[in-house]
Write a structure and sequence with these properties.
Elements: E1 4-8, H1 30-43, E2 47-50, H2 60-67, E3 75-81, H3 87-100, E4 105-110, H4 121-139, E5 144-147, E6 152-155, E7 170-173, H5 177-186, E8 189-192, H6 197-213, E9 219-228, H7 232-243, H8 248-256, H9 264-274, E10 281-283, E11 286-287, E12 300-303, H10 305-318, E13 320-326, H11 330-340
Parallel strand pairs: 1-2, 1-13, 2-3, 3-4, 4-7, 7-8, 8-9, 9-12, 9-13
Antiparallel strand pairs: 5-6, 10-11, 11-12
Helix pairs in contact: 1-11, 3-4, 4-5, 5-6
C-alpha cells in the first residue's frame, strides 16, 4: 500500500527561521505561499494543504484559484470553514477549482468558530454535519431537500461539475465526542495531530468502530512537522536553533490567536507537550517544542533520514495512509525532506475507493 505525502503552504502566517520571531519575508503572502506550493509541485509531493485562518493570513479558496494554473501535478487540499460561505456557492467554487486543476482537488473541512462568532461544540459540529452532507450531494450532482438547524433549502445541483462528476475527498479531524461522530458519519479521511504510538492506535481503533456503526470505512491521515538532517545530532541541533530565540509570552500569544485554540485537539497537544522529557521528546523522534509557539499541530519528527522513514512506516503499519508534513522554514524543509526521505517512500494521491 502506498501512502500520500503532502506538504503545507503557510497561508495562515506560520513560517519562521526562529520560532516566534517574525520575518517579513516569511509572512503569509501570494509571493511566499505560491513559492512554497510550486516548489512542492516540482519536487514531486502528492498534495499540499492550503490552510484557512481569518486572523492569520490570505484566503485559501482565492489562493487555490490563483495557483491552480501554475501547478502541474500536485493536488490542492483546500481548507474551508463551515459557515463562512453559503454551501451552494461553495459547491460551485469547488467544482470550478477542480476543473481548473484537472481533477486535482481535495477538501479539508474545518469546524472551528467563524470570525466574530462563538458556538457551543455540539452546535458547531451539527452545522458541519449538515454542510458536509449537502456539499457532498451537490458536488455529486444530486438535488438536495433538507430542513436542518443550519441549512434549510431545496435545490438542484449547480450545472458546473467536477472533472470526475463526483465529490472530491473530504479530509476532517477533531477529538471531541461530537467531532468524532461527525467524522465517522461524513468524512473520507480522518486527520490526526501528533501523538504517541499508543495514543494514535487508540484513536484509530475508536474511529474504525464508530465508522462501522454507519457502515462506512474511514481512511486516516497524520499531520506533523518534520526536521530531517543527515545525522540525528544535526537534526536535534536544528530543533534547538529553531527555539533559540523564542520568548515564552510571544509563544503564548501565538497559541491563543487561533480560532480553535481551546479545542479538544489543541488541549491534547498541550498534554503531549507536558508529558515530554526535559528535551521535549514525547517518545523516540517525536519532539514537542513546536507547540510552544503554535496552536494545533504541535510536534515534529526529528532525526536522520532512516529514523524519519522508520517512524513514518510505523504509522503506516497502524493504518495511516496520508501524511501532511511541514517544517521551518517551509520552503527549505520541503526541499530537505524531498532530498532525504521522499524518494524512499512508495507514495501517490489517495483515490476514492469503489
Amino acid at each position: 500500500m502506498s501512502v500520500e505525502v503532502s506538504w503545507f503552504s503557510a497561508l495562515c502566517d506560520d513560517d519562521y527561521q526562529y520560532l516566534g520571531v517574525h520575518d517579513e519575508s516569511l509572512k503569509s503572502s501570494w509571493s511566499h505561499c505560491s513559492s512554497i506550493t510550486r516548489t512542492a509541485d516540482r519536487l514531486g509531493y502528492d498534495s499540499i494543504l492550503l490552510p484557512s485562518g481569518y486572523q492569520l493570513g490570505i484566503d485559501s479558496v482565492a489562493f487555490a484559484g490563483g495557483i491552480a494554473p501554475l501547478t502541474e501535478q500536485i493536488r490542492l487540499l483546500v481548507a474551508v470553514r463551515c459557515g463562512e460561505l453559503w454551501v451552494p456557492q461553495l459547491a460551485r467554487q469547488l467544482a470550478t477549482l477542480d476543473q481548473m486543476l484537472g481533477g486535482r482537488l481535495s477538501i479539508n473541512i474545518i469546524s472551528s468558530d467563524m470570525p466574530g462568532e462563538s458556538l457551543e461544540s455540539v452546535d458547531r459540529y451539527q452545522r458541519t454535519r449538515e454542510t458536509m452532507h449537502v456539499l457532498r450531494d451537490l458536488l455529486n450532482g444530486k438535488s438536495v431537500a433538507t430542513k436542518g438547524e443550519f441549512l434549510n433549502l431545496t435545490l438542484d445541483p449547480p450545472n458546473v461539475r467536477t472533472v470526475s462528476g463526483q465529490s472530491p475527498l473530504f479530509y476532517f479531524g477533531g477529538l471531541s465526542e461530537p467531532a468524532r461522530q461527525v467524522a465517522a458519519e461524513c468524512a473520507d479521511v480522518f486527520l490526526m495531530w501528533p501523538g504517541t504510538m499508543p495514543e494514535i492506535n487508540h484513536i484509530l481503533t475508536d474511529m474504525r468502530t464508530r465508522a462501522a456503526a454507519f457502515n462506512r470505512h474511514l481512511r486516516f491521515g497524520y499531520r506533523v512537522h518534520v526536521i530531517v538532517r543527515e545525522s540525528e545530532n544535526e537534526a536535534i541541533d536544528a530543533s534547538r536553533r529553531l527555539l533559540s530565540r523564542l520568548n515564552d509570552s510571544e509563544g503564548a500569544r501565538i497559541r491563543a490567536q487561533s480560532l480553535d485554540s481551546s479545542s479538544a485537539g489543541v488541549r491534547a497537544q498541550g498534554q503531549l507537550r507536558e508529558s515530554a522529557d526535559d528535551d521535549g521528546f514525547a517518545e523516540e523522534n517525536l519532539w514537542t517544542g513546536i507547540g510552544r509557539a503554535r496552536s494545533g499541530c504541535g510536534a515534529a519528527l526529528v532525526g536522520d533520514p532512516d529514523q524519519i522513514l522508520s517512524k513514518l512506516m510505523q504509522y503506516k503499519e497502524l493504518g495511516i495512509e496520508s501524511f501532511i508534513l511541514s517544517g521551518y522554514p517551509h520552503h527549505d524543509e520541503c526541499d530537505l525532506f524531498a532530498r532525504y526521505v521522499l524518494p524512499e517512500l512508495d507514495h501517490g494521491v489517495l483515490t476514492r475507493r469503489t
